[in-house]
Write a structure and sequence with these properties.
mainly beta, 11-stranded parallel beta sheet, elongated
Length: 673
């Protein structure tokens, strides 16, 4: 695409971001439209905003989206960096290239992690189990990583694939237990998965720019999870299905887009070939939830080309924006129009489709069966908006339905709810008593719904914080809010600032609920490691042996002790007369022989004090002087009724009261709280 740029940021705290340009930005805006970034300022040549959560955004010219765009990826701090000194860790510098490192692991280790440092490298063929490949930030892989008939494979990190546009960065066949996380792919596709099992793709970013092909192509892959990804393609963003049995597919919390006549969410059953035989029995149990289709020909297409049964599909809480052509098909559930083969050649059933809480631009939804024996059946639409108009019945003009579709139900009164999470505050310290994440349910409160969650981050559970030992939140009927409460561990270990990242996980397919745009939240915990600040009620240095109060350790706290720095001064001490010191903290120094001054009884209260000291006096004039303990003059007043000490810092000060007739004086220690 013309003028495509991106910025990739690993956040550690809130980000105040400013984008500037030497051209007019007035007509530029962010997608997805559901974004919740805090806009600070927008001028003709700059946009400034604040982000405090991981985000995947694209900034583009509203009138020229095909030509000018800037993608912005803000990730949580990396929390899965391998330890370079762990047994089984291999450094690519010791071998010269990735293939030699992979081969060494195959021949010498039962489990290995290969660290790819910054630099440019070719890919590799992985031929053994239990291999992890970590791509450091700044590493670039220029040819694919591929493997067949292997298991327990992990490819992750903050590195980049930049392969030929006709290729895919990762190609795996007949594999099991695979995780792909964090990486970026430019030009080529992200991944092809064939006949595989237990595969998870998380937080990847892909821009397929020139060849008309998919970003993620999964055929016959069961138990597949695609979450929190940014996938922009010149054809389909996700293409799942085709030739083999496939079930239990979750595509959630993703930003998807197409530059051409493609689909954000595509499922095609079988071949577009009239000689083809069906290669599977069924494709079933698919869940697309909380996805934003930011530019496309259509949001979703579930198509029966030539194959077994297609059933149990859920599309929930998704939005579509920026269609290439207004008024065309925005979603389709249909038998193929590419061939007219008979039922004997392999068409299966298409049944049980649930569309809930969806928003589209102007257009229509296509439901099309093949014949009497091959109908599209059991379609439920709930709260579906097309061009700001709700679909209110199965005869709506917003639906295009042929004669071979049965049992279409519009249930706009069906309860639906959305879950989101926010942290109580962005920053915490180790000395805080607790950290709270608030989970809110909006919409219907009728159902009891269980929300699983995951706690990640650079902070470690048990070492840095403890939590209630529960991995699920159960919202009972009527409950709108719940909390996840964590308890920081205050220690004296120097660790630096650490992150705690809470992610809400997928909701069961068949529940009328979805995660919302804010499905994750993050806080940053400051590692204080500073000196104790007395009298603030906080264990600042995370050392219980350092007192916060009663610093002289004489058994009296500040509210009782008039000098908390001297253990010889406290309410139990013996008063020494005429020395200007109040040893027993009664507010007066014992003065012997100053009869005239004592008789006049110029006294003050309260002590300790917060804002003012008040004087109780006769008609005698006096001078009141307040100094610090070193004798530095702070305030001097003649015959005051009160003295303002509200602006003083907390601590101990000296008050001198001088009788102007006799010039006799008393000295008192006062405590400012």
């Amino acid at each position: 695409w013309n003028s495509f740029h991106y910025a990739h940021i690993s956040m550690m705290g809130g980000l105040d971001i400013e984008i500037t340009a030497n051209f007019d930005l007035e007509n530029w805006s962010f997608s997805p439209v559901r974004n919740t970034i805090a806009m600070v300022e927008k001028t003709a040549h700059s946009i400034r905003f604040f982000i405090e959560k991981p985000r995947k955004l694209i900034l583009w010219n509203n009138s020229e989206r095909m030509h000018h765009k800037l993608a912005l990826f803000v990730d949580a701090p990396e929390d899965d960096i391998p330890d370079a000194f762990d047994f089984g860790t291999i450094h690519i510098e010791d071998f010269g290239n990735l293939q030699e490192a992979v081969d060494f692991a195959k021949n010498n280790l039962t489990q290995a992690t290969i660290i790819v440092p910054p630099g440019v490298y070719e890919g590799a063929a992985v031929e053994s189990n239990n291999i992890s490949i970590y791509l450091s930030s700044g590493s670039v892989i220029t040819t694919p990583i591929f493997g067949t008939d292997i298991s327990n494979i992990k490819i992750y990190g903050r590195g980049t694939f930049q392969v030929d546009a006709s290729l895919d960065a990762i190609r795996l066949e007949y594999v099991e237990d695979v995780k792909i996380e964090g990486v970026i792919t430019i030009d080529g596709g992200m991944a092809i998965l064939f006949d595989s099992y237990n595969c998870a793709i998380h937080n990847v970013k892909n821009f397929r720019t020139s060849i008309r092909a998919q970003t993620i192509d999964a055929n016959g892959t069961n138990n597949l999870e695609i979450t929190d990804c940014f996938l922009l393609s010149s054809d389909d963003a996700t293409a799942i299905g085709y030739r083999h049995n496939q079930s239990n597919v979750n595509v959630t919390n993703c930003v998807l887009g197409i530059w051409g006549t493609g689909t954000c969410m595509k499922v095609a059953a079988g071949y577009r070939n009239e000689q083809a035989e069906p290669k599977y029995d069924e494709i079933a149990n698919y869940n697309y939830a909380n996805c934003d289709c930011i530019v496309a020909d259509r949001m979703a297409e579930i198509r029966q080309d030539c194959g077994g049964d297609v059933r149990q599909f859920y599309i929930k809480n998704c939005t579509m924006e920026n269609p290439f052509d207004i008024g065309k098909k925005v979603l389709g559930i249909n038998y193929s129009s590419f061939n007219e083969i008979s039922a004997a050649q392999g068409y299966g059933k298409m049944e049980d489709f649930y569309l809930s809480n969806l928003t589209f631009p102007e257009g229509y939804i296509l439901l099309r069966g093949l014949d009497e024996d091959h109908q599209v059946s059991n379609v439920v639409l709930s709260s579906v908006l097309i061009g700001n108009q709700p679909i209110e019945s199965s005869t709506s003009d917003l639906l295009e339905i042929n004669d071979f579709v049965q049992n279409v139900q519009v249930e706009n009164e069906t309860p639906f709810c959305v879950f989101s999470i926010e942290a109580d505050t962005l920053y915490h310290s180790e000395s805080d008593s607790l950290i709270v994440f608030n989970i809110e349910r909006t919409g219907s409160l009728e159902e009891e719904i269980t929300i699983p969650y995951e706690i990640r981050g650079t902070a470690s559970i048990d070492e840095d914080f403890s939590s209630v030992p529960n991995s699920d939140l159960i919202f009972l009927s009527g409950e709108a809010e719940k909390q996840i409460t964590l308890f920081p561990n205050c220690d004296t270990i120097v660790e630096g600032e650490e992150s705690i990242h809470v992610i809400l996980k997928n909701i069961p397919f068949d529940q009328q609920a979805s995660l919302g745009y804010d499905f994750q939240a993050i806080v940053y915990v400051a590692d204080l490691d500073i000196e104790e600040i007395p009298y603030n009620g906080i264990d600042d240095d995370c050392d219980t042996t350092t007192p916060d109060d009663d610093l002289d350790m004489d058994g009296f706290s500040l509210d009782q002790d008039c000098d908390d720095q001297n253990s010889d001064i406290n309410p139990n001490a013996d008063e020494i007369p005429n020395n200007g010191i109040d040893e027993n903290c009664d507010g007066l120094d014992l003065i012997v022989g100053a009869d005239e001054f004592i008789e006049e009884l110029i006294s003050f209260y309260p002590n300790p004090a917060i804002n003012f000291i008040y004087f109780k006096k006769s008609d005698r004039l006096f001078t009141a002087i307040i100094t610090d303990l070193s004798g530095k003059l702070l305030t001097k007043e003649i015959d005051p009724d009160k003295m303002d000490i509200s602006h003083y810092p907390k601590g101990v000060f000296l008050l001198r009261i001088i009788d102007q007739r006799s010039s006799k004086e008393s000295i008192h220690k006062i405590i400012k709280l």
